TrEMBL record:
Organism, scientific name: Paenibacillus kribbensis
Residues that coordinate or bind Zn(2+) 2: C571, C574, C589, C592
Record domain Helicase ATP-binding: where: 329-495
Protein name per its UniProtKB record: Replication restart protein PriA
Function per UniProt: Initiates the restart of stalled replication forks, which reloads the replicative helicase on sites other than the origin of replication. Recognizes and binds to abandoned replication forks and remodels them to uncover a helicase loading site. Promotes assembly of the primosome at these replication forks.
Assembly information from the UniProt record: Component of the replication restart primosome.
EC number: 5.6.2.4
InterPro entries listed in its UniProt record: DEAD/DEAH_box_helicase_dom, Helicase_ATP-bd, Helicase_C-like, P-loop_NTPase, PriA, PriA_3primeBD, PriA_3primeBD_sf, PriA_C
Gene3D superfamilies cross-referenced by the UniProt entry: P-loop containing nucleotide triphosphate hydrolases, PriA, 3(prime) DNA-binding domain
GO CC field: primosome complex
DNA sequence: AGCACGCCGACT
DNA sequence: GTCGGCGTGCTC
């Protein structure tokens, strides 16, 4: 047993540059057995109490170098982070140029984001020695008597001012606090809104004292419930003399009385049992008979749902050889990464499922990452069906509390498999054996907010820590991954390529027809459907088969535009158009929150021809109805899926064949699998191609390939119609031939010529400042300084040079969104390659600039390996 | 990030 | 003369 004092090195929850380092705190003896790396604690920090994470525990130096304070409180019995996650946080902070606290915070559910709550109590020297916890003092006389007792004497003195008088306001406040012993400051200032000064004075004089406690913001799930506001006897009496006019109210009251031992009752139950409206209950509430309140309910997002158990399917020989390779790696218990390139329908999921089974049987756990958009009930069902309640599911639609509960199942070892979006890569398993990332190429794996991490890189890093296996699966792997796998560079983390080129059920990939929309126009067809697609839909209607229509439009906001003059409603503080919100019927800026009512006439030209432009699905729906009277369409876009479970309902409707056409944006392209879909139509294949993004061709190819894979997955053969204005574009051509390899060959050529990933890496540096001239000067200054430092280190500045260590900096130029919250924005693009610490240098120069006096209000943000360049 | 200390304008 | 504006400096 250690004899000396122990010190905890902690990272405090203060996201600033100055505090992005460890601070030392003494560990009180009582906490010694509990404090370990990953523990969450409350520590005094300056005048405040803040939350902090323990990074390491070390013996205290003798003699101490500086005054050290002690940990105030241990916040969890089981540390929310494991030592490997703490280490991962350090790595992330360097890799993604963020504060360590940001990296640690993103690993745990927001329910554990503790914030200090301030409490006010009577200062110890004045408090009663044996005060009862609830000592109700109602009137001033009562208070007077209490004050005169021996125990209250000290407090009585303290309340007297210099001239021997005492202030009635002070007395009111003090007695209020005495009643409750301890009052949250917030509550106190709500109760005495005008008396802030008096409270401050009492604190200064030491009559009152303040303490701070870290409170988790556990969002409890609640449900509206009804309770009696009066006693049962009184309610029974009231029931007798209810007027005949309020018959419904009488029924409600009687219902509650009947079930008085079960109160409070869920509002929903009352409403449905009696088939009364909420207004009836509201009327009773207004009369003071009942109250409605929020009560907590137990959370399990999948409670009551049965999942049909599934057995492992026999594997095809392709699946078998991939599976065996992974099993070999798992059995070695060594870190290994695989890129599983399997065409749509090749049965990747079954390979995942059986690999997980193997991993579990080794007594290790597995993480399955899927893009948020494809974390559909169908997907969850497949995993729950195979592994039952050994699976925890985490996705953004869960409430904070549900998420917290699922996360606890993982940490407490009650599940073996975690399936979720991006952040599930941090699932706190102890013995991680396998991490699967499905649809590896999806850009949603990159977090766009700080910390701007990429789940793929984090997964590989975590697997390395645990000696675990990573499987990156996709029908259209990202060029970065594919290039790394194929070139098998000296990168020790480069994945090994595994291929599954044929469909598991043996059916062929659907035939893809490209429709040249320019030709349609020349032939006099001005409709949004080509003649062939039109006919295809008609045939499906006749044969009672189904059609999926995809509108490839990037961005998912609805904006308001004037058809006469082209005016678009924009935010006055940000260089961005306002988004239309149906629910509140107003326009909002999603960067700064500014909102305004929807204009009835155009503020520019006065025209009344002002209307919403959204994803355009509505227009397609209208045209379908016109062309095919009686056609049943399920439309999926942001407007129809914003409600909870809307997604699921719409898909079920389609699956049950209650609709002929499923129409939607990107969200219909992913992972859906309907047996009767024999036609897939892409209305506009190339709308993303003109975007200023070097990945435009790659994204177009991926989308077309994914959507083409939706057709004919079962017995019925499938057909795909792709409408395009640039049918000669290589991404369209190769996608139509299901030819990934040729697409990659051509795309890599372009990337090499233009010096883009995977031939180099990128760092996007964004600067913002209130004054444009100052901003431009500082951004130029940054660019020049970085360029100079790189030269000093012997890194070449020209990507054309065939040397290995290169750093080139482009810009500054105005950012695509050139102003946000009244701050102008400029950006630089750093391109680099080789064995150099480009990220470290870019960060270092940014730090130095932020410190210099002239750059006071400058903000610099780095995005390492950005996905969005806009 | 907060919360303090510290130095210059509009008011009792 | 004071209250209070927010510039800058520190937190084990």
């Amino acid at each position: 047993m250690e004899t000396g004092n122990l010190v905890a090195k902690v990272i405090v929850d203060v996201p600033a540059k100055d505090t992005d380092r460890t601070f030392d705190y003494l560990i009180p003896d009582s906490m010694r057995p509990w404090i370990e790396p990953g523990s969450r604690v409350a520590v005094p920090f300056g005048k405040r109490t803040v939350q902090a994470f323990v990074i390491s525990v070390v013996p205290a130096e003798e003699p101490p170098k500086y005054r050290m304070r002690a940990i105030q409180e241990l916040l969890d019995l089981v540390p929310p982070l494991s030592p490997d996650l703490v280490e991962l946080g350090k790595w992330m902070s360097e890799r993604y140029a963020c504060n360590q606290i940001m990296a640690l915070q993103v690993m745990i559910p927001t329910a554990l984001k503790g914030k200090a709550e301030r409490y006010i109590s009577i200062a110890e020297q004045h408090a009663f020695a044996n005060a009862s916890p609830v000592h109700a003092i109602q009137d001033p006389d009562d208070l007077q008597r209490t004050m005169q007792s021996d125990q209250g004497e000290e407090l009585e003195w303290a309340l007297l001012t210099d001239d021997g008088m005492s202030d009635p306001t002070e007395r009111r406040i003090v007695s209020f606090i005495q009643e409750k012993e301890q009052v949250p400051l917030q509550q106190l200032s709500r109760r005495f809104p005008e008396e802030a000064e008096v409270i401050k004075a009492l604190l200064r004089r030491g009559v009152l004292q303040e303490s701070q406690v870290i409170k988790d913001k556990l969002s409890k799930k609640t449900m509206k419930a009804v309770d009696l506001a009066i006693s049962i006897d009184k309610a029974s009496a009231a029931l007798e003399k209810f007027s005949a006019k309020a018959q419904r109210q009488r029924e409600v009251l009687a219902f509650l009385l009947e079930r008085s031992e079960f109160l409070p009752l869920p509002l929903k139950e009352v409403l449905t049992s009696l088939s009364v409206s909420a207004a009836t209950v509201k009327a009773l509430e207004d009369k003071g008979y009942v109250i409605t309140e929020d009560v907590e309910v137990f959370r399990d997002p999948y409670r009551g749902r049965r999942f049909k158990p599934t057995e492992p399917l026999p594997l095809t020989s392709e699946q078998q050889s991939v599976y065996e390779r992974i099993v070999r790696q798992l059995d070695m218990r060594e870190q290994g990464a695989y890129l599983l390139h399997g065409v749509t329908g090749s049965g990747k999921t079954e390979v995942y499922l059986q690999s997980i089974q193997r991993c579990i049987s080794q007594n290790r756990q597995a993480i399955v990452l899927v893009p948020e958009i494809s974390l559909t009930p169908q997907m969850v069902e497949r995993f729950k069906g195979r592994f039952g309640d050994q699976v925890a599911v985490m996705h953004s639609r869960l409430s904070g509390g549900e998420r917290y509960d699922e996360w606890r199942k993982i940490r407490e070892g009650r599940v073996k498999v975690a399936i979720g979006a991006r952040s599930a890569v941090f699932a706190p398993f102890r013995e991680l054996g396998l991490i699967i990332m499905d649809e590896e190429h999806e850009t949603s794996y990159k977090q766009e907010e700080t910390p701007k991490y990429h789940a793929r890189d984090v997964a590989i890093r975590r697997a390395h820590q645990h000696g675990a296996v990573v499987i990156l699966g996709s029908a259209t792997p990202s060029l970065e991954s594919y290039y790394a796998a194929r070139s098998q560079s000296n990168d020790e983390f480069a994945p090994l390529l595994l291929e599954m080129p044929t469909r598991a059920l043996g059916n062929t990939l659907p035939e893809v027809h490209i429709m040249d929309m320019r030709e349609e126009l020349r032939a006099g067809n001005r409709s949004m459907f080509s003649r062939a697609l039109h006919q295809g839909i008609a045939e499906r209607l006749e044969r009672k088969e189904q059609t999926v229509l995809l509108l490839n439009r990037r961005g998912h906001s609805t904006f308001v535009m004037c058809r006469s003059c082209g005016y678009v409603a924009g935010c006055p503080h940000c260089d961005i158009s306002l988004t239309y919100h149906q629910r509140s019927n107003n326009l909002r800026c999603h960067y700064c929150g500014y909102s305004e009512p929807v204009p009835q006439i155009c503020p520019e030209c006065g025209s009344e021809h002002i209307r919403y432009f959204g994803t355009g699905t509505q227009r397609v729906e209208e045209e379908l109805a016109k062309l095919f009277p009686g056609i049943r369409v399920v439309r999926m876009d942001v407007d129809t899926t914003s409600e909870k479970n809307a997604h699921e309902k719409l898909l079920k409707q389609f699956r049950d064949k209650k609709a002929d056409v499923l129409l939607g944006t990107q969200m219909v392209a992913k992972g859906l699998d309907f047996p009767d879909v024999t036609l897939v139509g892409v209305i506009t294949a190339d709308s993303a191609l003109n975007l200023p993004d070097f990945r435009a061709a790659e994204k177009t190819f991926q989308l077309l390939t994914q959507v083409a894979g939706r057709a004919g997955r079962h017995q019925l053969p499938g057909e795909v119609f792709v409408q395009s204005y640039t049918p000669e574009h290589y991404s369209v051509i190769h996608a139509s031939r299901h030819d990934y390899a040729s697409f990659v060959r051509e795309e890599l050529k372009h990337r090499r010529n233009l010096h883009y990933p995977p031939y180099c890496r990128l760092i996007l540096v964004t600067f913002s400042h209130e004054q444009l001239p100052v901003l431009v000067r500082l951004a130029e200054n940054y660019s020049a300084t970085l360029q100079g430092r790189a030269r000093q280190r012997g890194w070449f500045g020209n990507m054309d040079r065939l040397t290995s260590d290169v750093l080139d900096i482009l810009g500054p130029v105005a950012s695509p969104i050139s102003r946000i919250k009244n701050r102008y924005r400029f950006q630089c693009m750093i391109k680099w390659r080789g064995n150099i610490d480009a990220i470290g240098l870019a960060q270092q120069v940014a730090d130095e600039m932020a410190e210099s006096a002239q750059a006071q209000k400058l903000l610099i943000s780095l995005d390492v390996d950005p996905q969005m360049l806009m």
